[in-house]
Amino acid sequence: MPHRGLLDLPVELRLVIYDHFLADHQQVRRKTQPSNVHIRLVYTCKQIAQEAGPILHRYISLLHERQIQTFLLHAPSSVCTQVEWADVANDGRVFRGVDTDQEDAPLSSLHVALDRMTALKRLRVFQCRQGLPINLQNTMSLHRSRRLGLRFERAMFPRNAPALHLYELHISPETRVELFDALSPGALVALRLSGEIVAPPGERNLMPVPALRHLTLHGITGNFFDRHTVDECFPGARLEWFIYALGHRLGFEIRNHHLDSLATVYGNSLRRLILLGCSRLSSTNITRCLESLPVLQYFALHLVTVDELRSNFVLSLPPKLMVFRLQVINAWYAVALKEEERGLCDAIESTVLTRDPRYCRVCVCFRTQLMTEEGRRDRWERIARDLEIGPWENRMVDEI
Question: Which of 66, 105, 140, 194 is 20 to 30 A from 289, alpha carbon to alpha carbon?
Answer without folding.
Answer: 194
